[in-house]
Amino acid sequence: MPAAKVFQPRPAQPPPRAQHGLWPRVRAAFFDGWWNTLLTATTLALLIWTLPPLLGWGVFHAVPTADNAACRAAVGVGACWGVVAEKGRLILFGRYPFDEQWRPLLASALLVALLAGSCLRAFWKPWLALAWVGTFAVFFGLMKGGVFGLSVVETARWGGLPLTLLLSAASLVIAFPLAVLVALGRTSHLPAIRTLCVLYVELIRGVPLISVLFMASFILPLFMPHGGTIDVLARVLIGMTLFTAAYLAEVVRGGLQSLPKGQVEAAQSIGLTYWQTQRKIVLPQALRTVVPAIVNTFIGAFKDTSLVTIVSLYDLTGAVQLALGDADWRKFFLEGQLFVAAIYFVACFAMSRYSRWLEGHLNTGIRRV
């Protein structure tokens, strides 16, 4: 008979590494394996190589005041942030009358406050829709004037940050419910509705936004009655809304198709109507699954407002070109563009972080712990 095996206990093992605290998080993110460690070391080497000259140009040797002579003397050595101090109001508010620029400042602050409030669940109430309508009415009242003794400012003189906020916010607010309806139409069993929705989406997505803006600006007025006209801002807003809605519709349709058919069949079995099923069962789950894609479309629409320059509306990027048409400051175009890029980055980064938070917040009931 073979000898009986004698149980040998395993030697003592080291305790598991701590999973909480700053260093464990840093180690897991940057030093988890040799490949990750190599990438981290390479990145740090690049930062050490590039940061000192960038800081020297942008901070230590920069000219912060609107001194044109000092800026010209610092060319090639330091940045001229004085161009922002000198042309900042023109960049932010475009050709809006200088003495009346408190109006676009107040209008922009109200719109940004509403956008921030709409991101909080405490404000997700039925009255939020009325708040949007009221805020847009106040925005147009402040910008356009003609009420409460305010002087009239035609929309052709609107520009800068208020125009960018207006075009992006208004087009998205109008495009989202339209996109949901188009997505539902594309998944409909009615051939006529499905065909119309497919034609709309494919036609709009098959051409660039520049073409849509040109058609909205120059072809749409041809369909107006004789002697009738439509404001260029309204035409651009219509074009951007239709363009954004087509892309959002495909995102929402992807969410609708991700749901199993059993969800709809279960709703039908308890007697829910089509619209009750969509509103209470299908759409809440479908929209939750495509939150990152929806926010990505929002970010793209916010940046696409820079294309309205081709129809003579000066948003942030157009206002930079307008402001730096001055021969004395034209040389410092890079600093002006970096200032505008910082504004776009802050807005887009905020939307990206909110997307991460919203995704985790809505998935609380289904995510794995």
Task: Summarize, please.
The chain is flat, with a radius of gyration of 27 Å.
Give a verbal description of the structure.
The chain is flat and about 105 Å long. The mean pLDDT is 87. The protein is an all-alpha fold and 369 residues long. The protein has 15 helices and one strand. It has one domain: MetI-like fold, CATH 1.10.3720.10.
The tally of helices reads 15
Overall pLDDT score? 87
- What does the overall shape look like? flat
CATH class, please?
Mainly Alpha
- The parts where pLDDT drops under 50 for at least 5 residues are none
Task: State the major sheet.
Answer: none
H/E series = HHHHHHHHHHHHHEHH
User: Count of DSSP E strands?
Assistant: 1
The helix fraction, in percent, is 55-70%
Task: Give descriptors for this structure.
369 residues, MetI-like fold, flat
Write the layout of secondary structure elements.
Blueprint: H1 22-30, H2 34-60, H3 68-73, H4 82-93, H5 102-118, H6 127-144, H7 160-186, H8 191-205, H9 209-219, H10 232-257, H11 261-269, H12 274-289, H13 291-304, E1 314-315, H14 316-323, H15 333-362
Helix pairs in contact: 4-7, 4-14, 5-6, 5-7, 7-8, 7-10, 7-13, 7-14, 8-10, 9-10, 10-12, 10-13, 11-12, 13-15, 14-15
